[in-house]
Specification:
7 helices; single chain; 21% helix; five-stranded mixed beta sheet; L-amino peptidase D-ALA esterase/amidase
């Protein structure tokens, strides 16, 4: 058995040691391979953290190896926290959600869509750890806001899940309260580790190793100069569906398949922007994220939970305003198309970054999910004229 470990990943760390084949080539982001998605330019980090104030933190859980002992291991899982701003409780963000296919869970969405705002960090983890992660957010919020549930309101945490059963002992619920709190506390701006990290540790995407990916776009000044960022936890799709920049990569690379088929998966997509948008407009961004997902080949299969959340940091909605009205302004719908297009591009590239960033992982019962081979990807893209 491997020595149990919990790895907190600061955003300055760009790689992590996970169980993998020793001969595996170094990983790289899509643009580092010479493959460019869309025409809008990315932000400095090409990550959701390019939206000012947004922070991301991961804790990766790797425990044990070999045969599954339900409730004990091996564990290949983790947690990812997205913190839209420092004081999200007192300075809420406009927000909305959209369900492309509802075979999954993203808690707290009824209130988000009713009130039109987000007031907690967004937590991503595996399916059976949703309750534990939700409870951990309550503990964190009580620490940060001591009057919560006494003289202050109570909170409805936002937790999204994907099923990592193929690699992970879900029965063990190996993500702890301390892991979730640590991911929130250690969330940082800057570059975001991708692939087999945090909530993405046990994820499979198009039968390659998947997980966390992110991307951003900055609009030109004449379009408002706004930033859009997307972070995904991708765990969906079958190999034959995979498209990268329109190229049928899944039809070209047909080997390196798991010996047994994982579930059809799920994906959680989180969109952040500094554009002043209403909840209705943010739901439009969520729907465009679904188009970005489709560009990678997904058809939102029956057992896939494909859930989207979008928030805007442009407004600071007060927690308990005295005024009868709150002054707001929003992007003109006639001028919103660049934001919609940028969201599509970000989502497509974020999923691709998850694939190119993920490492091969060996999990329970020696189930192996292989990383997308980057040398072969480049060769395929070159044949199709997509490599610059």
């Amino acid at each position: 058995m491997l020595r149990p470990c919990r790895i907190a990943i600061a955003l300055a760390i760009l790689a992590i040691a996970l169980p993998a084949r020793s001969a595996e080539a170094p990983r790289a982001r899509l643009r580092d391979l010479g493959i460019t998605i869309g025409h809008y330019r990315p932000g400095r980090w090409n990550a959701i953290t390019d939206v000012a104030g947004v922070r991301v933190g991961h804790v990766t859980v790797i425990e044990g190896s070999g045969k599954l002992v339900p409730g004990h291991g091996p564990a290949r899982t983790g947690v990812t926290a997205i913190v839209p701003r420092t004081d999200i409780w007192h300075k809420k963000c406009m927000a909305a959600t959209f369900d492309l296919n509802g075979n999954g869970e993203l808690t707290g969405t009824h209130w988000i869509n009713e009130a039109g705002w987000l007031e907690t960090p967004v937590i991503l983890t595996d399916t059976l750890c949703v309750g534990r992660a939700s409870d951990a957010v309550v503990t964190w919020m009580e620490r940060e806001y001591p009057q919560m549930g006494i003289s202050d309101d109570v909170v409805l945490p936002v937790v999204g899940e994907c099923d990592d059963t193929f690699l992970n002992d879900q029965r063990g619920r190996h993500v702890t309260e301390a892991d979730v709190i640590r991911a929130i506390d250690e969330a940082r701006s800057g570059p975001v580790p991708e692939g087999s990290v945090g909530a993405g540790t046990g994820m499979t995407c198009y039968r390659f190793k998947g997980g966390v990916g992110t991307s951003s776009r900055v609009l030109d000044p004449q379009d408002g100069g706004y930033t859009v960022g997307v972070l995904v936890n991708c765990n969906m799709g079958v190999r034959s569906d995979l498209r990268i920049d329109g190229v049928p990569v899944g039809e070209e690379i047909t080997d390196l398949l798991p010996k047994r088929s994982p579930t059809e998966g799920s994906i959680i997509i989180v969109v952040g922007t500094d554009a002043p948008l209403t909840p209705t407009q943010l739901q439009r961004l969520c729907k465009r994220a679904a188009l970005g997902l489709a560009r990678t080949g997904s058809t939102a299969r029956n057992s896939s939970g494909d859930l989207m959340l979008a928030f805007s940091t442009a407004f600071e909605l007060p927690h308990d305003p005295d005024a009868v009205t709150v002054p707001l302004s929003a992007v003109n719908n006639a001028k919103i198309t660049p934001l919609l297009e940028a969201t599509v591009e970000c989502t497509e590239e974020a999923i691709d970054n998850a694939l190119t960033g993920a490492t091969t992982v060996v999990g329970r019962d020696d189930h192996t999910v292989y990383a997308l081979p980057l040398d072969r990807l480049k060769a395929v893209m070159r044949r199709y004229g997509r490599l610059r």
